[in-house]
Every structure is written in structure tokens, then in C-alpha cells.
Amino acid sequence: MAKEKKRALLELLHRDGNQLCADCGAPDPDWASYTLGVFICLSCSGIHRNIPNVSKVKSVRLDAWDEAQIEFMACNGNHVGRAKYESKTPSFYYKPTFSDCQLLREQWIRAKYERKEFIYAEKQEPYSAGYREGFLWKRGRDNGQFLSRKFVLTEREGALKYFNKNDAKEPKAIMKIEHLNATFQPAKIGNPHGLQITYLKDNSTRNIFVYHEDGKEIVDWFNAIRAARFHYLQVAFPGASDNDLVPKLSRNYLKEGYMEKTGPKQTEGFKKRWFTMDDRRLMYFKDPLDAFARGEVFIGSKENSYTVLEGLPPSTQGHHWQHGITIVTPDRKFLFACETEGDQREWIAAFQKVINRPMLPQEYAVEAHFKHKP
């Protein structure tokens, strides 16, 4: 009897829709919420356990199941669960995958099943209203301390602003929605709710690092920024579909980490720097939490004579890490060195991905700006 039940459950797992986790899309989920009727991965099952009033979980393979529970799973499943709990998810709302941070996955699961935000559209007010204000802890540019700052996001003005004092008339910074990006960086910021916001100031990237103690609050800010970007892009590209626009709302970095670099004359020795590959901008910082990059390199496409090579030219001088990378641009060569062969492989793959992608019309303007930088 137990074997038959197990076989019935495993058959349900192989049904279309149940082969990926209902919440994060991880392959081969072997846990299930027997109160919601969805199949989930081990990682998401841990989050479900934290909301026992809504979801109760069991292992498909290890736990005992009764007939009624198996019947409930058979009548539901991931397709039915999505149709019910995600029916009104806004296009701009970030749906995390298994590779995203714990906070994004937890808040997505709570929003779906506990708060039922995607069944009742009025519950989406915090991120869909086009205006949001509140206090976030912001890292000081010079002293590295986190201080409470008032932030205001206004779609009407097309900007995110922050104020150094609550009653300040003028904002300390105005960040245009057009050039705004937000990405969760818990490890780098040293806080599980750490969010990195970047914008362009005089065509150079400026970083701001913030967090909020409340996970829902910081994820609402993140989705409010995505909503503002979505509405801006809908106006800027009236013919574009939602599917075209959604990938442009926010972006995670292609790769980050330490490399060593040398200057244009390649005689001044190699210095260790923190590198961030953000779309076609390769930025380098003395410290990962610096507000401004020490420099930026534009990485174009192979059609425009950009290539990446393993190793360094034989004439390279100075002491450096063993695993070199040369990026050839139409104007000059950039020399980098990685500490391990694994790092070198990953960086080359990231550069290759960008170089293999044809340039968009607006990227030519960015490239021209880089060429004319003093």
C-alpha cells in the first residue's frame, strides 16, 4: 500500500508543470506543500516551514502520505497553484529564481501565499502607486557608517531622491529613473537585506548601498524601482511589448570579483582592484563598497574589433597573479591578471558573452563617450 502511494506521488511529480519548483523554478523538486497543493524544492520548503499557518510541507520520498493528501495534490499541482496565487502578478514584479538571494525568494513566497498580493491587486499599492517615500539605512560615502536617510521615489518627476535631513528642502542626490539600477548584494554589503542602487552621474556610475531591517519593506522598494522603470520604458519605447521591457527593468551584474590591472603604458606595475561587469561597463574600484569607480572600460562587440584573449603579451613587466587576460579594443589593450585559473575562466566567459552580443544603437553613443573621456 505504501509503495503504491509512493508511486502515485512520484507520477504526479513527473506531470507537466510539477517538474520544476512552483516558487523558484529549481529542477526536480521533491518536497510538497500538502495544504497548498504545490511541489517545491528543499530550499523553498524551508521558507514554507516558516509560515505554518499557511503551508505545511512533506518530503515526497521520505515522509508518509495518506490517500486524501495524495488526492489533494493530484487535484492541484503547480499549474493550478500558479493560476490561483500568481494570477495578478504585475509584469514588472521580480519573480526570483533558485539562484537569487534568500530574501527575494522568501518575500516572493510570502507575497504569494501569506499576503495573497497577486490575488488582490489592491495589496500591490506599496510598489505600484508610482510614488513611495520612507527611510532606509544608507552607507556613508566617506566613513562607511550606515545612517537613516529619507528616500522619495516619484514617477511624475522621473526620479529617486534622498535627503540628508528629514526637513531638508533640497535632496542630497537626484537619481533619474532612466539610468537607475537596483540589485540585491547581501554578501558584499554584509547585510541580508542589502540593496545596491546605481545611477549615472555625469555619465559615470555612482553606487549607493542601502538596507532596511524589514525584508518586505526593502523588496517593496526594489519592486517600486522596477515599476517606475517599467512605466518610463513604456513611454520611451511605445511599440515594445512587456516581454521586451521586463529584462531591462533591473539587472544583476554579469560578474564581480578581484583582479589585478596595469595602466595604459603597462609599466607601472599591477594593482589589485575590485571589478564589476555591468552590461558593457567594466568598472574597477579600490574597495567593493566605493561610491565611484576608479575607472571604467567599455566592452563592445566582436563586429567592432573587441576580443578577449587568454594570457598576457610576452613583453608584460611587473609582478602579477599568474592567470592573465588581455582585452583588445579598437584603441588599446587592457591587461588583467586573476589569482586562480577558475577566476580566469569565469571572467573570460563573462567578457566573451558581452563581446558575442551585437551592439544596440544606443550603445554606440556610450562607446563614443568613453572614447572622448579625458
Topology:
Blueprint: H1 2-13, E1 31-33, E2 38-40, H2 42-49, E3 57-59, H3 67-75, H4 78-85, H5 102-114, H6 125-128, E4 131-139, E5 146-154, E6 159-163, E7 173-176, E8 181-184, H7 186-189, E9 195-201, E10 204-211, H8 215-236, H9 242-245, E11 255-261, E12 271-278, E13 281-285, E14 295-298, E15 307-310, E16 323-328, E17 333-338, H10 341-355, H11 361-371
Antiparallel strand pairs: 1-2, 1-3, 4-5, 4-10, 5-6, 6-7, 8-9, 9-10, 11-12, 11-17, 12-13, 13-14, 15-16, 16-17
Mean pLDDT: 93
* Annotated CATH architecture of the largest domain: Roll
- Coarse morphology: globular
Low-confidence stretches: none
Order of helices and strands: HEEHEHHHHEEEEEHEEHHEEEEEEEHH
Main beta sheet: strand number and arrangement?
Answer: 7 strands, antiparallel
Walk across the major sheet and give the strand order: 7-6-5-4-10-9-8
Distance between the termini: 77 Å
Radius of gyration, Cα only, in angstroms? 24 Å
CATH C-level class of the largest domain is Mainly Beta
In DSSP terms, counting alpha (H) and pi (I) runs of 4 or more, how many helices? 11
Classify the secondary structure makeup into a structural class.
Answer: alpha+beta
How many domains?
Answer: 3
Number of E strands: 17
Q: Please bin the fraction of helical residues.
A: 25-40%
Residue fraction in strands: 25-35%
Which superfamily, in CATH terms, is the homologous superfamily of the largest domain? Pleckstrin-homology domain (PH domain)/Phosphotyrosine-binding domain (PTB)
Q: What name is given to the CATH topology of the largest domain?
A: PH-domain like
InterPro entries: Arf-GAP_dual-PH_domain (IPR052589), ARFGAP/RecO (IPR037278), ArfGAP_dom (IPR001164), ArfGAP_dom_sf (IPR038508), PH-like_dom_sf (IPR011993), PH1_ADAP (IPR037849), PH2_ADAP (IPR037851), PH_domain (IPR001849)
Domain Arf-GAP: 6-126
GO molecular function, one term: zinc ion binding
Pfam families: ArfGap, PH
